[in-house]
Amino acid sequence: MADYRPIPDERVDEFRAFVTYAFRPESGPYDPEEADELPAPARIGERRGLFDDVSDELLAVCRHYWFDAQVAGQLVSTAGLSAVASPPENRRQGLVRELLAESLAEYRERGVALSVLWPFHTPFYRQFGWATCNKIARTQVPPEALQFVDTEEDGRMRPLDPDDWSAMAEVLAAHGTDYELTLDRSEEWWRKRVFHSWDTDPYVYGWEDDRGDLRGYIVYQVEAGESDGEGQVIEAHDFAYTDREAERQLYRFLADHDSQIETVRLYGPAETTLLDRVDDPEDVTTEIQSGPMLRLVDVTGAIAARPFPDGTSVDLTLDVTDPLVEWNHGRFRLRVADGRAECEQVDAAGAPDVTLGIGALAQLFIGYHDAEELVAVGDCSVAHDDVTDALGAVFTGRDVFLREGF
Fold this sequence. Notes:
Blueprint: E1 2-6, H1 12-23, E2 46-52, E3 58-71, E4 74-85, H2 95-110, E5 114-117, H3 122-126, E6 131-132, E7 135-141, E8 155-159, H4 165-175, H5 187-194, E9 203-209, E10 214-223, E11 233-241, H6 244-255, E12 263-269, E13 285-290, E14 293-296, H7 299-305, E15 314-321, E16 330-337, E17 340-346, E18 354-357, H8 358-366, H9 371-377, E19 380-382, H10 385-394
Parallel strand pairs: 4-5, 11-12, 15-18
Antiparallel strand pairs: 1-2, 2-3, 3-4, 5-14, 6-14, 7-12, 7-13, 8-9, 9-10, 10-11, 15-16, 16-17, 18-19
């Protein structure tokens, strides 16, 4: 038997050894005598572990982050799950499955509605009920191709420091209005995760207008090229602006690196428009990648936490399968009216209106897929076409973009 509980500070070296072997095995065995001080990003979140209930041996580990994420215009309690690791001698014993189930139980007890993670391998977490919630556009462009920018306003680019976090948060809130899963970052997150990295800290610059208002920022690192002969690359992982003029100013800033940088690499929502804005589209290479994964912690709690469109109403039964926790497995009655929903587990009498897995329900919930798309890809079945229309009225497709890595 295993005991799930926090990993105390005095056992942090065991946690670091597990994570190092899982994610950076090429660095060799973790040696606490030679280890550097914990980097700033590692000092956020809460460590959890499975311990042998007899020997107290640590068997598997993970880390939890506590967020509020935008869903349908409202902040919803969300847990970030990361650093899931076990040493090779403990694998194939169901320990990670148990760790994930215990994590969901803790989230449920805390009233957390959603769980998000960045998978090392999408099928691995799909088997436990998580599902892809957004795609990412990885765009590469030479900086000189960004010289198409014609700026209109006076202002200046300047280096930003951690004390600028509040102004940056306002920029992110404005830019993230159109995207589900935009996080309401804490001051600690800004200071320790935006301005610091695991290895080399990033550059952080912002554009402020002639009134001194910050209207855009960019967080980036300068790295060697991915292949021999490729020059240096700007990797911009966080790029936000309040309006199109601020966006243009950020592009101009990147273009001004043309004597120094060979490639600019941007990460953003899949519906990027840069391809349509440069003079020569052949200068731009965009690769669409699968991104983070989402699942509902508790079906009834998550649906109750989410607002719904005014003027819509449904009364449907859903058969939900959950491979990990029993409280989400079964039949639910969903009633939506006046912008709010009630969802309760009911007896499975007769045929359901909708049949789907917990991952597909999460995609419907967040807007990654609407009902018609889910039915088309085979992840959802409905009793008749009117059910698809009813689901589509209350769960509309929306743009989703979780930009924070963890």
